[in-house]
Amino acid sequence: MEMKNNNHKMQMDEKELDYYLEVIQALKNVSENFLKNVDLKTIPSVEPDNVTLKPGMIIVLEGIFPPTFKEQASSDDKTIGHACIVSEDTTKIIEAVEYGNDGKGIVKESSYKSFFSKKGTYFWLWPDDDKKATDGNGKKAAAYVKKQIGKTYNHNYFNKWDETEFYCSALCWRSWYEQGIVVGTSYIIPYVAPNDLISFRTRKLNQWTKSNPATY
Hints:
Layout: E1 2-5, E2 8-11, H1 14-37, E3 58-61, H2 69-74, E4 82-86, E5 92-97, E6 106-111, E7 120-127, H3 135-147, E8 152-153, E9 165-166, H4 168-177, H5 194-199, E10 202-210
Parallel strand pairs: 8-9
Antiparallel strand pairs: 1-2, 3-4, 3-7, 4-5, 5-6, 7-10
Helix pairs in contact: 3-4
């Protein structure tokens, strides 16, 4: 397996891959335990139309990562989650999706409302670094992701550092990392999942659970 890290490549043998899989499982356990212990009553429940949005805000659909084949097959509602960034125009979001662009996936701008198409629990997040996570840096994060529109989807989830292509949570992670702020997993961890953005280094501003596909 080959990983690209900016301007150089790293070769990963099977032993290293096994190590990373162990790291992922450990982080998955930490993330799941964290989410289980979160008292949702302490996070304001607000419907999407009533959330006060600002550029650079992260929105995450909580998911299962990495999902087992059994979990994937058991229900159409199972998902590894999804993440996006609120655009400079707060009626829109920017996301990396696996479909589009001749099946290769693409970074694109979408309407804010379109993000809430699936059942599940959604979180609105902001970095917990009070000194650096200003509204100004939020606008810079939004400007960064806007420049990535049109790039292809990165299916190598072990390479969140790649700036030539992105998966959804890596796009969110990188937008704030460019401002000197880390959200989700630290720089040395090769991947960041949507749930990691909820669990690590962010403030949970609002949450909303969509139980009926017909709502919103």
